[in-house]
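User: Can you write out an input/output pair for a complex, sequences first and structure second?

Assistant: Here is one pair. Inputs:
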Amino acid sequence: MKLTRTRALSILFISYCIVSFCMYRFLILFPPIEILGDSYRLFFFHIPTPLVGFFAFTVTLFSSLMYLRTKNFIWDDMASSSVEIGFVFSGLAIATGWAFSYEAWNTIWSWDPKVMAIFVLWLVYLGYFSLRRAIDNPQKRASSSAVYGIVAYLSVPLTYMSTRMWTSLHPEGSIGLTSEMGMVAALMVFGFLILYVYLLWFGATYKRLMRKYGLLMQEAGI
Amino acid sequence: MTAFTTIFITAMIFWTAIILYIVSLDKKLRRLSEKISQLDAISGIDND
């Protein structure tokens, strides 16, 4: 199924409705929980943002592999757009983590393995942008960033598994949410995931059109 | 009004602003697409 502009805008609208509904639930309707009090409400942002970030980097991995196989620039557009979105969502995960940390432990930084791992992941993908900016030749840029996108993906499972490999402040199991709260958290993940789908469509379409525009201008000698 | 009602209203304003900004970017995308169609049509005439 081809994603047209109207369909993409519908997806954006659905995402808007889902996230608004969830915010109403967890900010207005849900009561404070034991131990964490009201600070648990931050989890409704802190849980979906890294998950969408990891998903975005997984799409980058797949698109990079597809680019190296087919040499079709559409895959390069998808890979680079997905990194941009993943980078923003990972940044939001770090920011909401800081906010929770300040609320719960009165400090914005802790040398927690997961915090360090996601920060390293963030820096690794920052390198992706530097690499793309440093290479002018489009084919070379696409190939190099595809290889980088594949290698950089190693940091994703490392971040995800960090709480299992080292002692961490991040809990492994339940954080004391009721099943209804868990459903809303899952709905937030879904709302952000479809926002990601829209943003990926937008980013990849914009890059494809800009490339075509550049070629047409070159042909016209402008 | 409780503190969380205020937070909710602020969050909704931010969230709506983000979505409206994205929609404004979408309009730019449509304009770019129209420009390309025009250029395509011109290059088509030249080719004839």
